[in-house]
Design brief:
This protein is of the alpha+beta class and 618 residues long. It contains 22 helices and 20 strands. Strand 16 and strand 17 form a beta hairpin. The N terminus is likely disordered.
Length: 618
């Protein structure tokens, strides 16, 4: 992965792979395969390494675009196709899953049944090829090529010269085919199936193709570059299982011990390794050891596993840290500015609303930690808000757990809702299926925590303050800004107020405009909004009748710093700065009282912001 701009530095991943390539290139032991004549033509010094992440980043060094034939690395992909075509039970009747500890071309059949031990040895692979759907040989071959193309993200073809070479020298494999027919593992003439096996081994690929194919398995069967499904997710685990235990033949035990990733090798010098959920590795180097595995390929994978902590059985214990942060509405409110009565009630009862901010990959083990905490807080919380903003992925087992907790709420006056769910679309699909017709009413999702908090606060306030004022019209004289003024003083101020109306969605204040008035909200709601780097608008506050805004203009006379938009049809009373200054000259006590009230309002906002900042950055 090289940048187009020479000023952009190479990724440190590329730097690492270059060093690894240089180190492993010094390994010159081993020989190129010769039992298939065309394989002997390979340059023994070819060497490529490619790493593809499950999110689609590609890192390649060396000879990653040199074509070669896939050989035995084809076996897990054909096995996956057979599973899709026939189902697990039917495939298991014909091919086992037990490792043999024997070489790739060993004749390892179960006594009595004649079933090959696993699909990674030649006998099992030939049996697997016979399970691919298709009325004709040509149909089966076309389906194989189409499936391999989905894995690689491009159309692949057969190297005809290698195929002819394989076919002309494949007497042992033909004998295996006849033996499988004898045990009825193959139900028809074994020769077309054996030829199909020769053709699948002769598909031309590159090291980069192998890495993308491996990453597709790591990404639960979805090609991370194209987004196309190559294998249904339910069968990926079966393919990876036999790769883990049988993919490296009589080296499988040592491989699992030293590398610890599902893998497959081929006699043309290719090796793939898969770290589920994270990445796929492709290595190409034709020099083979005595077991038929690429010498440099083994060395590369062992080093990557050790240096990058890729061993499947050495996963970090991240479950404890799935909950990034937890807080209640008694600590952090929504951005709606409340009356003093409402604020007091939320301080008293806001702990009934709790937010769980999650992070990382949600699997069974990590989500179990979350659900356990939800259960432990069940008695003390009425509104459970689950925030997915920092979640990287979510699987079906996690969805099952969240659905299970939702079911626990049935019969209790409690609600569960989700925020920032854009990165985990599986959750909504899963819950809609599980919850059926009632899903629209029961599945609550909000774009951001702020809106979820406001919804919960309103429910809580409706319960404890059923007579609170909502959607009312405030007398300007009773606005917070005029608190402490006498009747005579109000009689001086109120004639100075100018009245304006705004339609819902209309801008009341625009950032950058000259600040020349203070606003008193008489009717409706307005929100303060600031733009984010993404272009979206973030709400900083929402005001209700009787509240003031735009008061910073009194202090610094600077241009407006935010957008204020009418959420509903709005009426405002305005005091211009010119009139405000005139009050200072003619009625200084009034101006002092107004300043004091505005400072109290600003101080309350600042204290709230400081408190919330402390809670959210613990």
């Amino acid at each position: 992965m090289s940048p187009a701009d020479p000023q952009v530095p190479l990724s440190p991943v590329i730097d690492y792979l270059n060093r690894l390539h240089e180190t492993c290139a010094t390994a010159t032991e081993g020989e190129v395969a010769t039992y298939i004549p065309d394989l002997a033509k390979a340059n023994p010094d070819w060497f490529g390494i490619c790493l593809v992440t499950a999110t689609g980043s590609v890192y390649a060094v060396g000879d990653t675009d040199v074509p070669f034939t896939i050989q035995s690395i084809s076996k897990p992909f054909v096995y996956g196709l057979a599973l899709e075509d026939r189902g697990r039970s039917a495939v298991l009747e014909k091919v086992g899953t037990e490792p043999t500890g024997d070489a790739f071309n060993s004749i390892s059949l179960e006594p009595g049944t004649g079933r090959p031990r696993n699909p990674m040895i030649n006998a099992g692979a030939i049996a697997t090829a016979g399970l691919v759907e298709g009325r004709t040989h040509e149909t089966q071959l076309r389906r194989l090529l189409e499936t391999f193309g989905l894995y690689a993200g491009r159309a692949l073809s057969i190297d005809e010269e290698v195929y002819q070479s394989e076919s002309e020298t494949g007497h042992r494999n033909r004998a295996i085919g006849h033996m499988l027919r004898n045990f009825d593992i193959l139900s028809n003439d074994p020769m077309p199936v054996t030829e199909l096996y020769f053709q699948q081994c002769s598909i031309s690929v590159t090291c980069r193709d192998l890495a993308v194919m491996a990453a597709t398995l790591a990404n639960r069967g979805v090609n991370p570059l194209t987004g196309k499904q190559a294998l249904r997710g339910e069968y990926v685990e079966s393919v990876l299982s036999v790769m883990e235990t049988c993919g490296m033949y009589d080296y499988a035990g040592e491989w699992l011990y030293n590398v610890g990733m599902p893998a497959k090798s081929g006699v043309s010098g290719g090796v793939i390794a898969v770290l589920p959920g994270q990445l796929g590795i492709g290595v190409f180097s034709p020099r083979l050891d005595a077991r038929g595995n690429s010498v440099r390929g083994i060395k590369v994978c062992e080093t990557l596993s050790r240096n990058l902590d890729l061993h499947l059985l050495n996963r970090p214990t991240i479950g404890r840290f799935t909950i990034r942060l937890k807080f209640t509405a008694a600590d952090v409110n929504s951005k709606r500015v409340r009356t003093e009565e409402e604020s007091q009630m939320l301080r008293k009862t806001g702990s009934r609303i709790c937010v769980w901010q999650l992070q990382g990959n949600l699997t069974f083990s990590t989500t179990e930690i979350v659900v356990r905490d939800l259960i432990e807080n069940f008695a003390d919380v009425d509104f459970f808000i689950i925030d997915f903003q920092q979640v990287l992925s979510l699987n079906e087992s996690a969805c099952h757990l969240f659905h299970g907790f939702l079911e626990k709420l049935t019969g209790h006056d409690k609600r569960m809702m989700f925020t920032h769910t854009g990165s985990v679309p599986l959750l909504r699909r899963f819950l809609r299926i599980k919850m059926g017709a009632g899903s629209d009413a029961e599945y609550l999702a909000f774009d951001v925590n702020d809106l979820a908090l406001e919804w919960c606060e309103n429910k809580l306030l409706d319960l404890h303050l059923p007579d609170r004022k909502r959607d009312h019209r405030a007398d300007p004289a009773t606005c917070d800004a005029f608190a402490g003024l006498s009747g005579e003083e109000l009689a001086i101020v109120t004639p100075l107020l100018q009245h304006r109306s705004y339609k819902a969605g209309e801008s009341v204040i625009i950032a950058g405009d000259e600040a020349d008035e203070i606003f008193l909200l008489v009717r409706g709601n307005t929100s303060v909004l600031v733009p984010l780097a993404s272009g979206a608008l973030k709400r900083l506050a929402t005001f209700s009748p009787g509240m003031s805004f735009g008061e910073m203009a009194v202090i610094d006379r600077a241009p407006r710093s935010a957008l204020i938009r009418a959420d509903t049809d709005v009426e405002c009373a305005l005091l211009t700065l010119a009139d405000f200054d005139r009050l200072g000259r003619e009625h200084p006590r009034i101006k002092i009282q107004l300043l004091q009230n505005l400072c109290i309002t600003m101080s309350g906002k600042l204290r709230k912001a400081n408190w919330e900042l402390g809670v959210l950055t613990e």
